[in-house]
Structure formats: C-alpha cells, structure tokens
Amino acid sequence: MLQQIEAIGQEFHEATKHSYLSVMMDPNYIDASTQPSVFKRYPHFYQRFPLDPDNPIHCFIRLTSSITWKKFAGNNSYFLRVNPSAGALYPTEIYVQIRGVKGFVDGLYHLEVQNNCLTLIYELVDDGIDNYVLHQQLVKGFIFLVSCAYFRSSWKYKNRSLRYCFLDSGHHLGTIEASAYLYQQNIKAIFEFDKRGLNQVLGLENQEFITAAVVSGHLKDKPVKRLRSQLPFVAATDYFEANPFVEEGYKSTVVPTHLTNISQVKVPGFKFDHDHFYQTVLQRRSARFFGKQVITKFEFSQILAYLDYPLNTDSLERIEIYSIINRVEGMQKGVYQGEKLIKTDDFSEKAGYLCINQALARDSAVTFFFVCDYRNYQTAMQWVGWLGHRLYLISNYLNIGCSGIGAYYDDETQEFLETPKPVLYGMAIGR
Ligand SMILES: Cc1cc2nc3c(=O)[nH]c(=O)nc-3n(C[C@H](O)[C@H](O)[C@H](O)COP(=O)(O)O)c2cc1C
Fold it and tell me: Does an H or E element contain 299, and which?
C-alpha cells in the first residue's frame, strides 16, 4: 500500500500564513533607518576582477545580478536590480566557481554586485565545489551558487521572510536563466546537494545559506576533491540579528544529500528576438499600479505557453497555475486553472482583498496564484519564484506590466481557488 509521505517543510508554510486577523494584529511597522546593508563585500585585500561590459562571458556573469535602476527617496538612494526582491531587500548573493575558462584564474568567486566585479575568494588546485553539487563529475565552466543573507529580509518580514528568501532565490535562478539565454550558455539548476557542507566550507556560519546551484558548461566523469580548507567568515550585512525560526526552516527543508549525476545540460527552447529580450531584461520592473486596461486572449495564451516550458532541473515539483481573469479581451471573467474555467464572475474586488487589499491585484488584467502540493518546500518555493521570473520577463517583453505579490491571505485564497493545495505565490499582470 502506498503511504502518504508528508511534504518536507509543511509546518513552516503553515506557521507563516497571513490572515485578516494576523495582519490586523501585527501590521509590521519598521524603522527604515535600521535596514541592514544590501551589498556583501569581501575585505579589500582580496583580488578583484572587473567584469568587462564588452566581453560576452563577463556579461553572462554580470547580467545575473546587475543594478539596472537608481531610485531616490528623500536623502536616500536605492539600487534596483535585474532580479526583483520582496520589499527590494535583496537577500540573495551569487558565488561562482570558474574552471577552464579563458581569461579567468580557476577559482571560486563572489559576485560583488555594487562594483560589477568578481572577488576571488578561493583559488582551485585539484579541488573544487563540484563534489558538493554533483556525483563524481567535474565541471569545465561555471557552477553558480545562490545564497541568502536572510537577515536582510527577516529584518522586515520576520518569520515570513523564509518564504521570501526562497522566492527571491527562485527569481535569481530566473535571471541566471535569462542571462544564459542571451549569452548562449547552457544551464541546469540543482536543488538537492550538500548545502550544509558548502555553508560550512564557505564560512557562511548561520548568517547566510546556500539555496540552489546552477551548472553551466561541460561535464567530465571525474571525481574532484573537496576544498582543501575552509574559507573565513565574512559578514554579508553590517549588523545581524538571528531569527531561529528562519534558520530552522532552512535546515529542516535541506533534504539529506542527494548528489545528482547529470549527463547533459540542456538549452531551454525559447525563441525571443535577441535585442528586444535583452532590453526587456535590462528594463524589467515591478508595476506599481495598473490602469484597469485589458490584455488580449492571444497575449494571455503566449504568457501561459511560456510558463509551460519545462524548468531545466531534475527536481519533481508540480506547480499548478490559477488565474483570476479580470480584464482579458475575448475571455470570460472568472477563475481558471490553466485553461480550465472553474467559476465565472467579476472577481477583481475579491482578488484585491485576498492580496491584503493591494490595488495591483484588483486592477490587474490577470492575478495569478501558484499552487503546489510540494514534495520539498525549499525547492518548490524556488520553482515558483523561477516561474514568477519568467512571468515578469514574458509580460514585460509583450509590453505588459507585472508584479510579484508575496502578501495574501493564505487560507482564504486557497478556499477561494477551491484547491486542497497550498498557495505558494501570487502575481499580477496588466497595463
Ligand atoms: C517574492 C516577491 C514578493 C513581492 N511581493 C510584493 C507585494 O506583495 N506587493 C508589491 O507591490 N510588490 C511586491 N513585490 C515586488 C517588489 O516590491 C519589487 O521587486 C522590488 O521593489 C524591486 O523593484 P523591481 O522589481 O522594480 O526591480 C514582490 C517581489 C518579490 C520578488
């Protein structure tokens, strides 16, 4: 008899649910002047390599995390990036191992986003991080690691930041995918590997944790020694307050090491106009309001088709997409699961309410919810973040606005969608 296997991480999703009451009782006011720093920087004596905007391989790395907009508010300035982030808090950092690539010292680098450079934090001899991520394989090319300096997000969002760290990490995978597409690099994302071992050897202590890896390049069947020494701890924020819930939520959703043996890395089969897609990546922004205008049924079906491309990974999560159609020319208003109509009516006010009275969800053409009976919470949340990133890019590519919506009443939304499965992420698109 088949046994029901309890999903890994359920209790952390349950414990971070929003409800009408929870939001009323904890409106979550913060003092903006106490925000921790959003850029990690290794000490000055580490060697740095500027990323040349005219070198395609440098651009491939650079475009995974670039700053694309500077915003002024009062006396402060904020840097927005290719990747969106809940509350623009940017908990994610990127490390990349480079081996056998012309012009680079074989080593492990930290991507210093603020200064568009790679900081060499470890030089390879006959060792590497391959063996933490893959089974007996060597990567000639790149292994990207996405990590979360979680306090940047927990500073504001407390326990719910566990969700936002994973979602932001998924968005960051989406930016790596987009950059790889533009610079014709193959990629494959891996979620289940020896993250604990890496956290330790990279000296991340309890302040930062690895969430995903992306392999890009050629693979050889050859075992690689683990790193010969541990790296020193370097803080990702100027100050730090531990959040035991987030730390436990991360640890409990790291599955026991399951090293993947990947025989090939595939190129996703997208077909975009290169220059237009490049501009879309550079100009991607979150819509801040919608003018209650329609999109067409053709645009909507193009969007769904793009979301339907498989994610380039071995993991086995199954995401269902629910759409509240508010304003799509040629389509009946109502709730759809994929293309199947579930119920009809004008639910725009309801959509706004469910997203904690956010006008974006009410005035949108479509408000989406990603639903999943996950096997592993940490992986599934990153999948929906990655899908969410595709939604941003395809919408912006079609000249349609988009925004992530991480704040919604969990149980009421699930009830409204008439699904037994938890809702992992919301998004809205429109003009
Ligand atoms: C996981 C996630 C959740 C988000 N949730 C909301 C939200 O509930 N409401 C909202 O207006 N924007 C939301 N956003 C959008 C962010 O505020 C936005 O990404 C950030 O301000 C950076 O701006 P940019 O996306 O234009 O670069 C979310 C983004 C992400 C990635």
Answer: helix 297-308
Within 13 A of 170's CA, how many CA atoms are on the CB side?
28
* Residue 311, helix vs strand vs coil: coil
Instruction: Label residue 2 by pLDDT band (50, 70, 90).
Output: very low
Give the pLDDT band of residue 4 (cuts 50, 70, 90).
very low
- pLDDT at residue 146 above 80? yes
Residue 72 CA to ligand 1 centre (angstroms): 17
Q: How far is the CA of 17 from the centre of ligand 1 (A)?
A: 18
The alpha carbon of 193 and the centre of ligand 1 are apart by a number of angstroms equal to 29
Tell me the per-residue pLDDT of 126-145, one tens digit each, with 9 for 90 and over: 999 999 999 999 999 999 99
How high is the pLDDT of residue 262? 72
Amino acid at position 279, single letter: Q
User: What's the pLDDT band for 71 if we cut at 50, 70, 90?
Assistant: confident
User: If you ran DSSP here, which 8-state letter would residue 3 be given?
Assistant: P
- Domains, the chain, in order of start with CATH, read 31-252 (3.40.109.10), 286-430 (3.40.109.10)
| Any ligand 1 atom below 6 A from CB of 85 | yes
Residue with CA closest to ligand 1 atom 20: 88
Average pLDDT over residues 18-24: 92
Ligand 1 mutation target, pool 286, 363, 384, 409, most atoms within 8 A of CB: 286
Could you tell me if the CB of 360 is within 6 A of ligand 1? yes
pLDDT at 3 over 70: no
358 lines ligand 1 (CB under 6 A): yes
The answer to whether the beta carbons of residues 365 and 429 sit under 8 Å apart is yes
From 23, 68, 81, 85, mutation site for ligand 1 pocket: most ligand atoms within 8 A of C-beta: 85
122, 283, 294 from 279: Cα distances, Å: 34, 6, 24
Six-digit token pair at 355?
């997203």
User: For residue 201, what pLDDT is reported?
Assistant: 98
* Mean pLDDT taken over the chain: 94
For 90, half-sphere exposure in the C-beta direction (CA atoms, 13 angstrom radius) is 22
Radius of gyration of the chain (CA): 21
